[in-house]
């Protein structure tokens, strides 16, 4: 059985926090970040379980990055078409998800040590957990920073626009 800090490394060890801090400034950007992270984690962790158990750890980590890139590029192009403003505001951080340390950590801690069913379940669980944190952070920052949710104005008397800056994710 995994300890909580192994199941939820974002919350306990701050692994994978950089994209959340930099990019989750609104619900729209959080949805994009959540989707891309979930798809990458699920696919890479399952591929690691099926194909990479016998490879050296250093080789596997390079392959995780290459797979992340191969998954990230079409998703980036899709979101650039569907949500050009949010994709543009993500800047370099959306493509950087290809080398998200959370993926490598999950693959090394779990995928290469367990069977496919357990790995797929771990990837889905971790993906939803990571997405939940991203969405909560995105909504809170959007409400407090701009007084909106999904660009719908709320009647909030005080706004803290600093929360919409990358450093605002640490607050």
TrEMBL record:
Keyword terms: Membrane, Translocase, Transmembrane, Transmembrane helix, Transport
Subcellular location: Endomembrane system
Bilayer disposition of the protein: Multi-pass membrane protein
InterPro entries tied to this protein: NqrDE/RnfAE (IPR003667)
One Pfam match: Rnf-Nqr
Transmembrane stretches, start-end: 7-25, 31-51, 63-82, 88-107, 119-140
GO CC annotation terms, alphabetical: endomembrane system; plasma membrane
Principal subcellular localization: membrane
UniProt protein name: Electron transport complex RsxE subunit
Organism taxonomic ancestry: unclassified sequences, metagenomes, organismal metagenomes
């Amino acid at each position: 059985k995994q300890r909580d800090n192994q199941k939820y490394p974002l919350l306990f060890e701050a692994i994978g926090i950089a994209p959340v801090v930099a990019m989750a400034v609104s619900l729209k950007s959080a949805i994009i970040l959540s989707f891309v992270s979930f798809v990458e984690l699920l696919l890479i962790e399952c591929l690691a379980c099926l194909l990479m158990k016998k490879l050296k750890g250093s080789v596997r980590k390079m392959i995780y990055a290459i797979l992340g890139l191969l998954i990230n590029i079409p998703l980036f192009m899709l979101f650039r078409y569907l949500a050009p403003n949010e994709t543009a505001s993500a800047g370099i951080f959306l493509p950087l998800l290809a080398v998200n340390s959370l993926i490598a950590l999950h693959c090394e801690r779990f995928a290469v040590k367990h069977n496919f069913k357990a790995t797929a379940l771990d990837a889905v669980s971790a993906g939803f957990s990571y997405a939940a944190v991203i969405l909560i952070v995105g909504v809170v920052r959007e409400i407090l920073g701009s007084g909106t949710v999904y660009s719908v104005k709320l009647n909030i008397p005080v706004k803290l626009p600093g929360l919409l800056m990358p450093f605002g994710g640490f607050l």
